[in-house]
Write a sequence for this structure.
């Protein structure tokens, strides 16, 4: 049952609208799950700007790499049926042209956890960017034979032995999709539909053009440039499947999230035993994002099988995955011990949906969303931007945010100085909100940069200058 908007969720609605406006996202669909039930769902903005059509919870979007968890779920189902083992070498099923130098082969589980030793080779990035007109580079990969040919010269690109190191590898999931086809005897889209989508009642989800084209509630994909101009695009149907090709809606993805929270069960059906399902979010390898620990830097995020794991999200374990095909973005996340989850989809690349999902999950947990480190850092950095002046306006500088950094720009005669300000310490979330300190490079040496906030004023110490904020950008 979908419940109406409540005062407790009003901050989420305001946050979503603000971030969509800041980044130019045309439309977004969101659903919240608690204890197996959809407690709130909402469409924001437009699925079709030109026609003025709104987004609904049933609006279809591409989900990108959220698909990877379905691929891993399918492999675990096949293992449960005794048709394969995750310890199997990949070359038991495919003539893999890349062979590690040691004795350890690349196994199915290595591809599932992105630990094959191969860094990202960029086939999907090139395919998507060529399709939407932002790049001329393209490889005509329409199936597994084309992918094996693409990988034929990748041997020298190996960086690590299997299992040693995390490298996100879309190409590996294309291989896994082919393994599913050869073991099950079904095309990948058919297997997923029969064994995952249909049992969960995800009737508006699929992979083929016929699943979307002609649907009256399908989102138009848009390319968003730096000036937030939106250009109508098209989606690459069929060119990407097991690594990121699912088309779905917030209502269906909420059912998918509810299945994880229910230990692998859907409406009257069990997709996987709970112990096997939980293995999907067992930390297999650290992702190279670090946080401040008691003894120094420590991993903040891990990868399981098709899912990322954050062990300390407001004191809880957060499981989830994002997806992007440039013109569509998505995120699913859930907190297993607390039984809450979120699904988001958008028709463009704008504000990070994982951070929007973190905001929503914090509210579901009864916590302050601004205590989430990424959101706290974002708010702190935004609070330092503006126009600054030295004594009596003798010099002027601007401070703008660029992702997780600040950039200070100052005119010095005919030349303009630009300094990249890096948060001092391990991350921006750990900055002192009253005296946030940064560093930059000048003359090949570290230069400290210090802000001071008090009584509504913000001062900045940069090299020989003290500047005071006199306006906002």
């Amino acid at each position: 049952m979908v419940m109406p908007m409540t005062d407790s969720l009003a901050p989420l609605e305001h946050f979503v609208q603000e971030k969509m406006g800041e980044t130019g996202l045309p439309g977004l669909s969101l659903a919240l799950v608690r204890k197996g039930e959809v407690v709130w769902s909402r469409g924001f903005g437009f699925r079709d700007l030109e026609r003025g059509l709104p987004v609904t919870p049933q609006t279809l979007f591409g989900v990108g790499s959220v698909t990877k968890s379905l691929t891993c779920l399918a492999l675990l189902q096949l293992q449960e049926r005794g048709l394969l083992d995750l310890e199997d070498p990949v070359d038991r099923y495919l003539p893999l042209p890349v062979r590690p130098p040691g004795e350890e082969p690349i196994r199915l589980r290595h591809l599932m956890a992105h630990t094959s030793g191969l860094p990202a080779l960029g086939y999907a990035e090139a395919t998507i960017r060529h399709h939407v007109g932002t790049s001329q580079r393209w490889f005509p990969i329409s199936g597994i034979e084309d992918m094996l040919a693409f990988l034929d010269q990748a041997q020298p690109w190996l960086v690590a032995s299997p299992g040693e190191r995390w490298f996100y590898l879309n190409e590996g999931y294309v291989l896994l999709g082919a393994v599913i086809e050869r073991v099950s005897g079904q095309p990948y889209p058919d297997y997923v539909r029969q064994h995952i989508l249909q049992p969960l009642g995800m009737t508006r989800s699929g992979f083929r053009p016929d699943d979307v084209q002609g649907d009256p509630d399908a989102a138009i994909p848009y390319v968003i440039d730096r000036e937030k101009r939106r250009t109508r695009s098209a989606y690459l149907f069929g060119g990407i499947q097991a690594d990121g090709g699912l088309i779905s809606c917030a209502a269906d993805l909420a059912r998918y999230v509810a299945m994880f929270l229910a230990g692998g069960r859907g409406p009257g059906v069990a997709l996987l035993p709970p112990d096997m399902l939980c293995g999907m979010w067992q930390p297999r390898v650290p992702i190279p994002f670090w946080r401040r620990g008691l003894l120094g830097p420590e991993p903040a995020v891990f990868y399981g099988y098709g899912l990322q794991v954050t062990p300390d999200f407001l004191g809880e374990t957060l499981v989830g995955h994002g997806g992007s095909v440039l013109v569509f973005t998505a995120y699913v996340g859930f907190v297993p011990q607390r039984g809450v989850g979120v699904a988001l989809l958008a028709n463009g690349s704008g504000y990070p949906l994982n951070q929007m999902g973190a905001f929503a999950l914090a509210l579901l947990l009864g916590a302050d969303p601004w205590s989430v480190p990424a959101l706290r850092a974002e708010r702190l950095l935004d609070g330092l931007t503006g126009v600054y002046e030295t004594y009596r306006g003798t010099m002027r500088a601007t401070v703008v945010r660029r992702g997780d950094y600040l950039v200070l720009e100052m005119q010095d005669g005919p030349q303009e100085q630009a300094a990249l300000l890096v948060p001092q310490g391990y991350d921006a979330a750990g900055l002192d909100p009253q005296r946030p300190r940064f560093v930059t490079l000048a003359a090949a040496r570290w230069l400290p940069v210090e802000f001071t906030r008090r009584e509504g004023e913000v001062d900045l110490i940069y090299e020989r200058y003290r500047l005071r904020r006199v306006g906002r950008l």
